[in-house]
Sequence to fold (234 residues):
Amino acid sequence: MAIPAWNEQGSIAGVIAKVREHRPEADILVVNDGSTDRTAVTARAAGAQVVSLPFNVGVGGAMRTAFLYAKREGYGALVQVDADGQHDPVDLDRIIDGLDEADVVVGTRFHPHSTYFVGGPRKWAMRLLSLSLSRMNKGTITDPTSGFRSAGPRAIDLFAVEYPADYLGDTVGSLAIAIRHGLVVRETPVTMYFRQTGRPSKNAIWSALYLGRASLAIVATSLKRDYVPRGDTS
Fold:
């Protein structure tokens, strides 16, 4: 399990405990993303491995670190879980088991039994992103900005080399990259709660730029040359 964390000392121990409750066999890595509080100390005390970055690089940079770690240590699967308590570890089985048929499994908040609500411009932005990525994927992606997701061996190999660190890159951009490189992307329903403590990393100004930046990320990804695994000359 990879948990990117920025100033989450109030929730990180509880998240680690809940993950261990549902997947006691899982190794947990907290990527301390330049926190100025006791996030790293609290995570270690809760029993997680901790990698601390010298300054805040954002979720994309933190997850790039996690994929590099997973590649180096030879893990066959990596699951991203938010540090703020919004993700329900009860859903971990579906997120992980989905890798039997896919390279990336995204937990979607939008399903018949969900109470999660998005309104206003953000709703239309997410709908446009969903349509764009679903068309690229030739399969439905209803929740392109979900940070609750898993990656199998091929995705780990790819993302350890090529993982976007810009805003929304860790969600929308990474899915576009995965699709462009022929990885299989699927969804599974999950539950999303309100964050336990702290505040979102982006303010209203960033939300206003949501659609434009995400759309540009998809376009930029589609223009890049195909990824070739190191050592593959075929």
